[in-house]
Amino acid sequence: MAEPLGIIAGNGQLPRLTAQGMRAAGHRVVIAGMAGQYEDALPGVSDDFVKVGVLRVGEWARKLKRMGVSRAVMVGGVDKASLMFMPFWKRVLVMRPDWTVAKLWYRILRHDKRSQTLLTAVAEELRKAGIELMDSTHYIPEHLADAGVMTTHPPTKTQQEDIAFGWPILMNMNDLEIGQAIAVRTHDVVAVEAIEGTDAMIKRAGDLVGSRSKKEDGGWTLLKGAGPQKDLRFDVPTIGLQTIENLKAAGAGCLAVDAGRVIFVDKEDVLKAADDAGIAIVGVQE
């Protein structure tokens, strides 16, 4: 069997899909599941499983190294918003950050809490401890967005115009590390994703324009992606069935994503759900 590979797992289904891809490639899979984040069924798709603290980066490295892992991926979500707005004393008492995280906070994160800054610093600490983070999409290529129209029906002329209008704005927004999604309707940006996440932004966009969207123009369009500069080791944009349900409820008619750089969780089911909901999905190729 090939070398053992590690997964540092947050919430959602991506850790499961990644584990399946690694095992299909002949690797033994070791999962370090973040306490309170990973799905209950996740230990069952691993060869070895350990629970680790969310704010204990040094612990991640030590436990993976003990099981022979020197390369790993970090996938799955963490509720960053709740962590950020949790009082500092509670973070210390409840989350019990280790010395590695304490040093990161003092040197870097107390000045800059942006996701890219945080994750790059974590990756460097893991590298120093002997764990190299890999491209998180490497073992799930079949779940990445394709270029061009992915659903059975294409976007309308209005939706195509909104994609052309909004895509450069989204890319510039990502360069500023603000968020990974925007909502556009008839050449107007109506909502921008920030720390609240895509689902909350979709609801906000629906509250603003969903009920007033004209049937003939297909509603508003969600653009999601992180651009060619995105570090694919972590925080790759993701679309799932819940995203499609939220878009339908909010009156959206089109979803444009970054081809090859957005993950579809259970891709076939997501595309079918979009077709059933009358939502066009198109992969934008830079």
UniProtKB/TrEMBL annotation:
The organism of origin for this protein: Algisphaera agarilytica
PANTHER family in UniProt: BLL4848 PROTEIN (PTHR39962), LPXI FAMILY PROTEIN (PTHR39962:SF1)
Domain of life: Bacteria
Lineage, top ranks: Bacteria, Pseudomonadati, Planctomycetota, Phycisphaerae, Phycisphaerales
Residue intervals of the LpxI C-terminal domain: 147-282
Protein name, entry field: UDP-2,3-diacylglucosamine pyrophosphatase LpxI
Residues of the LpxI N-terminal domain: 5-142
